Structures are given as structure tokens and as C-alpha cells.
Amino acid sequence: MATIRLGDKAPNFTAESTEGTINFHEWLGDSWGVLFSHPADYTPVCTTELGTVAKYKAAFDKRDVKVVALSVDGLDSHKGWIQDINETQNTTVNFPIIADEDRMVSELYDMIHPNADSSATVRSVFVIGNDKKVKLMITYPASTGRNFDELLRVIDSLQLTAYHKVATPANWQKGEDCVIVPSVDTASIRSLFPKGYKEIKPYLRMTPQPN
Questions:
Q1: What is the mean pLDDT of residues 87-115?
Q2: Residues designated as active site
Q3: Spatial distance between the Cα atoms of 116 and 102, rounded to a whole number of angstroms
Q4: Average pLDDT over every residue of 46-59
Q5: Domain 14-146 falls in which CATH fold?
Q6: Cβ(86)–Cβ(92) below 8 Å
């Protein structure tokens, strides 16, 4: 079974989904991506999660992020479940759900944790950059629903820090001040950060969000 670490190239796969056959890397193209797994169809927490993602699709689109879900059940089950999601969550599922009956993708991404459940996937989340590399991994137990506001916050940070020499402090929200990374020497700060900066300690220098 594969072990995936941050910075690894996201494993490619071809699988059936509710929106047709997906070759993962081709489907991502030049976009960022979120791959998230669900223990099973017709489960209550997953139903609320998929409904939430459908409602947040515009927010993901704004960030050029494609979202795809996965469950170890088949396509017929997925399609019936989508009807329930649309009905109970007052939305329309507008992204693909991968059918992973043979556990191929689940095992490729190490989504099955036998000490938690020998057959169902845990709630794994992978954020993948437009370079196809894994930028974030979060694993929730099956009993705990994900916080998609937090996922968007993290994506904002990942996309900002990918292109600017900053990091984001605790509880950072888009638009707030950022930390200048330690590798930037003081002489370079003025040219890199024309909005100015505040030195709290030599290693802790804050600047307005550069973009």
C-alpha cells in the first residue's frame, strides 16, 4: 500500500464516476484539485458533506479548484444517493463522485485504515496543486464531518504561499497580515514587499497580504 507524503506527486488513476470515466491527471488539467473520500453511500454525515460541497462549488471554482468525491460503492448506488442528497440538502450535486468498488483508488491513496474500519474509507482529504503535487492531507474519523470553510481557508493560504515569500499565521483569514519567511533577508524586504512590514522580532516580520 502506498504511503503518500506532502510534496509527492499525486498518484494518477483512471476510474468510473457519476460524470463518466476520469483520468485523474487529465481531469485536473492545470487546475488545483480536492479529492475527498466517504466511508459509504447513504450515510448521514456524508450526505451533509456532499450537499455542502455542492453549495460551495462556486467558491472552489473561484479558486480554480476542481473537487471530486470517492466512495467504495458503485455507480448505481451513487446515482440513487445523489437524489437523496439533492432532496435533503436542498442543492444539486455538481461534481463527480468516483465509484471505487475494487478499492483501487482507496488503497492507492491509503484511505482505508484497518484499525478504524477494515472495509470503509476514513474521511481523507487531499489538496493537489496545479503541479500535481500533494499540498495538504487531512484525515478525519468516519464519525466527524469536515469543515469546508477551513478547507477553503487552507487553499487560500496554499495558493498565496506558493507564489509569494510569505507564510500565514495561526487562524489567518484571507486579507489579513502574513509572515515574511525567514529566508528573506532584511535588505530584500522593501523590494519584495512594497506595502511595508513590521518587525516584531528578527525572525517574526509581518506584512500586509501581498496579493
A1: 87
A2: 46
A3: 19
A4: 95
A5: Glutaredoxin (3.40.30)
A6: yes
Integer distance in angstroms from the first to the last C-alpha of the chain? 40
pLDDT surpasses 80 at 43: yes
The confidence score (pLDDT) of residue 121 equals: 56
Q: For the domain 164-207, what is the CATH code?
A: 3.30.1020.10
Residue 196: Cβ-neighbour burial (10 angstroms; 0-12, 13-18, 19+): exposed
Cβ atoms of 166 and 178 closer than 8 Å? yes
How many Å apart are CA 101 and CA 79, to the nearest integer?
14
pTM value surpassing 0.85: yes
Average pLDDT over residues 198-210: 95
Nearest Cα neighbor of 13 from 95, 106, 76 is 106
Contact 104, 71 (CB under 8 A): no
Per-residue model confidence (pLDDT) at position 55: 97
